[in-house]
Amino acid sequence: MAFSMLSVFLCFHGFAAEKDFYKLTTIPFPKDLKLEVSGMAALPGDRMAIAIRKGEIWIAEKLSTGKPVYKPFATGLHEPLGLAFYQGDLYTVQRSELTRLRDTDDDGRADEYLTHAKGWGVTGNYHEYAYGPAVDGAGNMWVALNCSIGKGPNPNNRWRGWSLRVKPDGTWAPVSGGFRSPSGIGTNLAGDVFATDQQGNWYATCPLMHVKRGAFHGHADALQFTKLPDATFQVKQPLPKNLTVAEAARRIPAYQLPAVWFPYRKMGMSTTDILADSTKGKFGPFAGQLFCGEFTMSFVSRVFLEKVDGEYQGACFRFRDGLDCAALRLQWGADGSMYIGQSNRGWNSLGTKSYGLQRLQWTGKVPFEMKSMSATRHGFRLSFTQMLDVGTAIKPESYTLKSYTYPYQSKYGGEPVDVKTHTVKFGGLDALGLFIDLTVDELREGYVYELHAHGVRNKKGQPLLHSEAFYTLNRVPK
Amino acid sequence: MIRASVILCLCFPLIAAAQPVVPGFDRFPRDTPAQQIAAGEVLINELNCVACHTVDAQNAHRFQAHAGPTLFNTHNPASAGWLRHWLLDPQKLKPGTTMPDLLHGLDKDAKNEAVEALRHYLMTISPATGPEAAMIGNGAEGKKLYQTLGCAQCHSPDGKDNGRDISLGQLSSKYSHANLVKFLRDPLHSRPAGRMPRTPMSEQEAAHLAVYLRGRVKPLDLHGLNRGPLALKQQREGAKLFSRLNCANCHDTPKLKVQRAVAISLDDLGLKGGCLAPKPSARAPHFHLSAAQRTAITAALQAKPKPWTARDRAHHRMRQLNCTACHTREALGGPDATRDKLFLTTGNDLGDEGRLPPLLTGVGAKLTESALRQVLRGDAAIRPYMSTRMPDFGEAHAKFLAPQLATADARANVKPTPRDGNENKVGRNRYGRELVGTKGLNCITCHQLGGHKSLGIQALDLASAPGRLRPEWFRDYLINPAAFRPGTRMPSFWPGGKAVSPIFGRNTERQIDSLWVYLNELDQTRLPEGLEKKGGFELRPTDRPIVFRTFMEGAGTHAIAIGFPAGVHAAFDSETVGWTTLWRGKFLDAESTWDDRFTPLAEPLGTNVIKLASGPAVSAALKDNAPWPKDGLDFRGYRLAKTGSPTLLYRHGKTEITDTLAPKNKGLQRVMTFGPGQEILWVRLATAKEFLTRERGVWMADEGFTIITPTARVRRIGDSAELIAPVRLRANGKTVLEMELQW
Fold this sequence. Notes:
heterodimer, A: 478 residues, mainly beta, Neuraminidase, 2 domains, 8-stranded antiparallel β-sheet, 4-stranded antiparallel β-sheet, disordered N terminus, B: 743 residues, Cytochrome Bc1 Complex, Chain D, domain 2, 5 domains, 23 helices, 19 strands
């Protein structure tokens, strides 16, 4: 019977489960509060500001007790899809502006709703979501704008599908363009800005992109605004057809490959928020790495980034499954637990709820994981969270590796193309058994390398908690 | 492979050398002997060789005749002028036609004579027609329909006959507008073989198409018919020719009973002569076969006949009907990539699944046989957002293909779905309802259900499932959607067979079966949670004013609506920076802002709606006839008083302006303050056709709307009036402007 096989399968996974290392709890909230979380900002004093999609901001107090008290802070906002706390005030991006919210009389409610920046196009088309702000080290605020799908009643249509940088004085300029629906924008610990986007037209699968001046990220609808005076790049049109993204990177000078591709379904179907691990170890062994939310499949993934040749690239890994609902926003609590804000309105997700808030806490046990996968001249270096069993780690049969790239096309989505299976050889091991170098027969720039380290064991003979890693090899180190 | 060959074809000159166009041949590879044979088999059938030649029993499954266009009936009465051009040179009039030239052996005069005789005769077997009324159409609409309904997947995308795609021919001389409308609405009536299927369309759509199709090419020179004794003679000659040329072997003739004449058996044919000669003898029909076509036909004729499996039979028939012009099926290929852009959708957000006709790989295991038959008859379309329409190929093909596909695609060792659990006891499956609803798997976020709109994107109506799908397929698809529809965005709620929802003890089989039962009983049961009547989105200012940002009719995409507990409300456009709307009674319904993915503009919910003006509230001094500026103010946000009452903040140059409304005397009082400056600014209070005044400072607009400001005056621009008031700024200190708005 299939059922008995299923239970064997469950048992097999049973001895090392994600929940043993990261505990997930659902945070309660009042019944009449529709907590469709669309933005979160940590406030001093064990408090979290939470924006919800119907345009309100609530302050959750005594957060770390697990049973916070919610107090209203602001109302009447137009679908705020991000929240930041900067120099004492909250900032949120509404459909049509970046708003600074101030509580000047300290009664716990905002009394000034100040327009910090506005002027991007809002035609009224439903798809024109606006995300942010992400705040960089210099106090600039970054906003990411969806492309329109169709037209709206207002003819003003500027900078849709672009990122904007707002200076502290409120003046702003476009930075990069080519987004479809960049529902996550955030910074790494170095203060560089990244955005995620959604699989669809021009994106065969979801990307994580470095938001950098002059970058064209790929969605061609954004190109109509390269005619405007402040455009930061130009692209020769019409775009060449029947390209892979690897070819597009060579043929279209402004086109910048994503730092990481999230292969469809394997690494999610709709990547959302970006949260850098700034907990310095309070959240486990991944300090400095990025966590990303996943909407449709309701999980959190993990990203390791490195710079090769001055450009970011890296690998993604599954991290924690089984959320109640779509992960739309991620934020740290004061005690180093991760809060996962959820809402799946308009688009379905796995799980049992339509919105809510969950908390993810490190149990203190270190899972056996690939901590990082980085590129070397001849292959990849894997680092691990626990000491390796040398016998299994150096065996080529412990690994399978394939590479593929994606079509660059206006068509919706796209399957991996030019798939090749590679042979892997042992290339070296460090004395502690925490790193291993693998030599790969062929390294193709612009390709994703999908590694399954299914045979690798730690000293206790246990397999990896997640044995798959996906490295986006835009550049091979020289 | 197929795509590659199609693309290669496009590199050739615009009009390829005339040869019969048969998509089941042209669009498929012929790289191996087996592929050559299959291509030849398709050609032999599509050229209707067996209409004249006989086949013996061992080949009967491979070669079959089909009926050519009927001569004639009321849907395709003969056109005498058109017939002349047609019979003289079918390939010239319609490049790529499978109609052979039967008179190619005659010299010019003799051919002319034969053609005249034939058409005089043919007119006698055509029903008499007179002028008929038909709906008027629009050619531009017709062109859009032609490109999107699916016509252009077999015919050329630009409607120009090119010798590569199935030609449309000279339709304005062949059909009257009314006849073409009739033909388009039911091509099977006069072309029963189903190669031109019936695309479901309204009479209006057919009329648009007819105008477009008839207008594409210049009309022909039409020669009239003779009368009197000469005509009678030609008719008699024509009748003899009609019989001698064996026209009725291919064409049904409702007015005649003609014995079919039989030519030499296919199995005994010499493979070099007759129709297959590069230049056929005078007695053989001339199909203008290309060398590649002759090679394929020869290969098929020489091949040792093998019995066919259901898969062979289905695929052969699908090539004949050109199914892969629109659908992809593994092993058969898919649509021409260059026509991909013609597959369109009206469904926002549905991606390729909303636009591309469904994958046919494994379709026989997906749909029940009766659903397959219905689909092949062009019935039961369930994807209203898809612009391309599934046509009706006629009962014979439906009856043939449905069981063949079912057998061909049958999956081995499929576990049956449970049929004896609790979920199957009679009555309203509550687990299924729970799973479909918002507290369960929330299927209704994306999928419509029984005609009810979904909560998010508007994907396929789930109520269609029970009537169409096989329950085993439904189960296996839900467990792993991507295995059945590569690229689908449907997630698996049972990844690896493991249920994510705790409902029903996390039992995958039971959950899916209860969904199935619920969908089967949908019309007798309650709608799921989330679809049962919504509501409760009305915003009611009770103790404090409500300040609400939204997209709003009149106030635009940067609207700020303000509702006061006193029942007077206003909207401000923060993009152009000015008040646009006043109203009374109910304030606003937030459903379009909070719950509708497609964000329609909100409208005032109450009554007595006054439209004030559009454009900035404040301007620098203007010349007499200069229009009010379109911009010039910089919106800075708003401040809330302790009472929740908002003060809007904006700037003109360096002058800070505040603008506050508060209920007063059944209306609103507006107070504006201006920061220091040197100049005079003007405030525009409202625009109207005209403003009347009876006492100083009291202005009535034509809608029963009164504005009270002592300093206001009227400025006429074109045929409307603007009520404006000057504000002389002070070098130090504030200036205040107050007014009352009553309506």
